[in-house]
Design a protein that fits this description.
CATH architecture of one domain: 2-Layer Sandwich
Radius of gyration: 20 Å
CATH superfamily of one domain: Bira Bifunctional Protein, Domain 2
Largest sheet: 8 strands, mixed
CATH topology of one domain: BirA Bifunctional Protein, domain 2
CATH class of one domain: Alpha Beta
Structural class: alpha+beta
Strand order of the largest sheet: 1-5-6-11-10-9-7-8
Shape: globular
Number of helices: 10
Number of strands: 11
């Protein structure tokens, strides 16, 4: 039996203080992003291209268009923003910095509100800087985690270790291989630990680890950790990417990517997690 007041599990209802807090967060973010030269875009809720974004396509909510072609609800905004800007709007605008404030949807009924930005031909360093500026403006201090998707990919290709071990962080299996250096990489969290192990890893991994070190040295976060073996679920990341946490709750993620020969960097803040973090901060 479904009661009149019920809403599907995973969907969102905002009212009173949470609605005001959500609107305040979005206003602060949009004001800052506009000052940084971003223009707003709102992409269609339906998409033909979400399989390019989400690694596990079982998370897509599928429908059919009038021609009986498969469409899905928007499960990720990044690829649609870049694709629409470059393919559909390309002749009418030279703007390369775009932001969006909109939800995405995952099977079966999960609704995730986001504030995101993409910069075509942008660097991860500059987009990470914008992300940290947003957290400063919102008066939230997260833990920044930096990773490099090329590291688990190269290890899998060269040493035959399943990517699934990295995707699900099966630490016991990674520690149990014949490679001593891999066990040491599992334990790396801080810059001095990376510096001590970088000479022990195979040569093909060293440039990718050095990229992580360089990004750490340019970022402004006072709380920064490394996760060199973390494997992102988004299929478009091609190298460095980051996540931001507060008490183990993800608040944001971002990375560099290539799609259809277009390079870009971007990030997304998770509005509902930010509302909770701001509410706890106020109550604390």
């Amino acid at each position: 039996m479904i009661f009149e007041h019920e809403i599907p599990a995973g969907s969102r209802l905002y009212f009173g203080s949470t609605a005001r807090r959500k609107r305040a967060i979005e206003r602060v973010a949009s004001d800052l992003l506009e000052k940084e030269g971003f223009e707003e875009i709102a992409t269609p809720i339906f998409s033909y291209h979400q399989h390019q974004s989400v690694r596990d396509t079982k998370e897509l909510i599928r429908l059919s268009d009038p021609m009986n072609r498969e469409v899905t609800l928007r499960a990720d905004s990044t690829i649609d923003v870049v694709r629409l800007v470059t393919k559909r709007l390309g002749r009418s605008t030279g703007q390369k910095r775009w932001f969006y404030i909109q939800p995405v949807y995952r099977y079966p009924t999960e609704e995730i509100h986001q504030i995101g930005a993409e910069c075509i031909d942008g660097t991860l360093t500059e987009m990470l800087g914008v992300t940290m500026d947003l957290f400063d403006a919102l008066e939230v201090e997260p833990v920044l985690q930096i990773s490099n998707i090329q590291i688990p990919v190269l290890i899998s290709l060269e040493f035959g270790i399943p990517l699934e071990w990295f995707a699900s962080m099966q630490v016991e299996k990674l520690l149990g291989t014949e490679y001593e250096w891999l066990g040491k990489l599992v334990k790396v969290q801080h810059l001095h630990e990376l510096d001590s192990v970088i000479a022990e890893v195979p040569q093909l991994l060293r440039p990718e680890l050095e990229k992580m070190r360089d990004l750490v040295e340019t970022c402004r976060s006072r709380q920064c950790v490394l996760a060199p073996l973390y494997y992102a679920k988004m299929r478009y990341y091609d190298g460095l990417f980051f996540q931001c946490f507060k008490e183990n709750t993800p608040l944001a993620s971002g990375g560099h990517f290539i799609n259809d020969d277009i390079t870009a960097a971007g990030f997304a803040l998770y509005t509902d997690a930010l509302i909770e973090a701001k509410t706890k901060g106020t109550n604390g």
